[in-house]
Structure prediction request, 182 residues.
Amino acid sequence: MTSTLLFILTCVISLFASAQEQLKVGEITPDFILKSGDGKEYSTKKLRGKIIVLIMGNRKIRKEDNEWGKIIQKDFERNNHVAAFIVGDMRSVPSFVPKSFIKKYMQKKPAPVTFLFDWSGKVHQQYKTQPKLPNLYVISHTGRIIFRKSWKLSQNRYLEFKSIIDKELFDLIQKDKANNKE
Prediction:
């Protein structure tokens, strides 16, 4: 009985500790530089001034990541203030599969938004992602996290997610207008 109670207590404490470690809304975004399939580098520092949308996942949830990417692409593809990416955690890819094969596959079946390869998983570790669901981040034009959830796509969830982007977009456009008047 004592060992069972100790086990349950340990599980509860570890769950609480992992929840405490997750990045929180309002925190500065961990910077990263990752490459897309065509070799172009993307950096959170260089993207400052834009609203950054990150859909982070692994190959086992690519379908769900792509669903988020499609709907985001549909709503924001013509907006120069929003940059959306799927960041793929590539640690689960077997080591005998060449990177060049994966890049060619991704060119044949491209993601709906720019796909960035996190070969070492370092970015996923920095962002403390959950492996079983798409991890969604919205980063403000100043580099702060303004939204963070691990969600499957639904209409209500997308509307909540989109409202965060729309609000930040409104604030950014107002700031641009004020700067242009000066």
Q: What stands out?
A: The chain has one domain: 27-181.
